[in-house]
Amino acid sequence: MRTEDLERRAMSLPGAVESAHFGKRDFRVGNRIFMSLPEAGRAVVKFTPDQQRLFLETEPGVCAAVPGGWGLKGWTSVYFADADEDIIDHVMETAWRNVAPKPLTNAAKTSAA
Prior knowledge:
Oligomer: single chain
Radius of gyration: 13 Å
Strand order of the largest sheet: 1-2-3-4-6-5
Structural class: alpha+beta
Mean pLDDT: 92
Low-confidence stretches: none
């Protein structure tokens, strides 16, 4: 998957906007970051620690905990270049749901049904 594909997928999520912090691009909803792009081929997403543990177990070649305190809080590196598109979609939607306001997540559930 190319960076452009990842960006397009992120921007297709309800309420998503592109921004930046610390000189790195990020994607937000409700002014909360769900994904950043710190370097080529790697995204960082916002998981809960439990979600992180699950993704580290099920997708060890794709997901890795960010080192230090950020990783302990659930922030997770995602190496997307050779990853399956369905996995990336699931990773991104999970991170988006973790920060999106409830009305947006409820609307997304309704439109998916």
